[in-house]
């Protein structure tokens, strides 16, 4: 595992974007696993700049980690208070680069049969040849994607109940801004499983801010446990980058 501590959020985002860009340059038809949340915003902004400078996404395929159940828009349709991760991806990344619409894969928050959709999504990842690089944040409760505490470390893409902490965290970061009440937030999501994520060829986990310092240290240096599903990074066999800013890396021990 390569742990890289950068001075601040800007530098963390620069580094993470360059790791992704290197994959795209060396394999123009690569498969990227993408994440949402406040952490990757800067990384996507840096990738958009790289695109303006010539980085080509026209053959890149993407698979997103998760989506709230009951929320999802059709890309490129008008929307106002849409808090889906599909909208987030469109706003923060897709509309700024030349990724083809047919190469974008997002968990379907309005799937008629969410469980059948999860099986299909796993098959699509396999059909694409697997994920070359998976971008990940880490939740306040130590989750990867929506693999909440207690999720099996061999779990696959599935429907999951959100933890009280995730509902609180995401209310702060997304919903509050749109004026939606907490009671109206979805309580369930579709998420890639930890087993699915661990099949990626490379992982890139990013975290910033002092709020993440304790959980980052637990995930990287504490026991591997389903109570902190990001601790599964310690089991990962491929190349893993963890890029954090100084605040999020403050509780890491040199060992
Ligand atoms: P955040 O979320 O980037 O908004 O902190 C991270 C996550 O839940 O994975």
Please sum up the structure shown.
The chain has 255 residues and is α/β, with parallel strands linked by helices. It has helices spanning 9-26, 41-52, 85-92, 114-127, 164-178, 194-198, 213-221; strands at 2-6, 31-34, 61-64, 66-68, 104-105, 133-136, 158-161, 188-191, 202-207, 239-245.
Q: Can you lay out the helices and strands and say which pair or pack?
A:
Layout: E1 2-6, H1 9-26, E2 31-34, H2 41-52, E3 61-64, E4 66-68, H3 85-92, E5 104-105, H4 114-127, E6 133-136, E7 158-161, H5 164-178, E8 188-191, H6 194-198, E9 202-207, H7 213-221, E10 239-245
Parallel strand pairs: 1-10, 2-3, 2-6, 3-5, 6-9, 9-10
Antiparallel strand pairs: 4-8, 7-8
Helix pairs in contact: 1-2
């Amino acid at each position: 595992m390569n742990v890289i501590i950068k001075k601040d959020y800007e530098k963390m985002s620069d580094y993470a974007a360059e790791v992704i860009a290197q994959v795209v340059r060396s394999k123009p038809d690569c498969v990227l696993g993408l994440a949402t949340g406040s952490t990757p915003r800067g990384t996507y902004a840096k990738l958009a700049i790289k695109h303006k400078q010539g980085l080509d996404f026209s053959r890149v395929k993407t698979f997103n980690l998760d989506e709230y159940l009951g929320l999802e828009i059709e890309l490129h349709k008008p929307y106002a208070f849409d808090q889906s991760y599909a909208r987030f991806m469109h706003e923060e990344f897709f509309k700024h680069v030349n990724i083809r619409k047919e190469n974008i894969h997002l968990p379907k928050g309005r799937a008629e049969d969410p469980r059948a959709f999860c099986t299909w999504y796993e098959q699509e990842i396999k059909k694409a040849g697997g994920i070359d690089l998976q971008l990940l944040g880490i939740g306040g409760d130590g989750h990867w994607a929506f693999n909440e505490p207690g999720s099996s470390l061999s779990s696959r893409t599935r429907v999951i109940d959100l933890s009280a902490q995730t509902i609180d965290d995401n209310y702060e970061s997304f919903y509050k801004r749109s004026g939606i009440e907490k009671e109206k937030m979805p309580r369930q999501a579709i998420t890639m499983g930890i087993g699915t994520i661990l099949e990626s060829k490379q992982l890139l986990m990013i975290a910033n801010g002092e709020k993440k310092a304790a959980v980052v240290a637990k995930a990287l240096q504490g026991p591997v446990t389903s109570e902190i599903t990001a601790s599964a990074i310690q089991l990962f066999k491929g190349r893993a980058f963890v890029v954090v800013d100084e605040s999020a890396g403050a509780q890491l021990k040199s060992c």
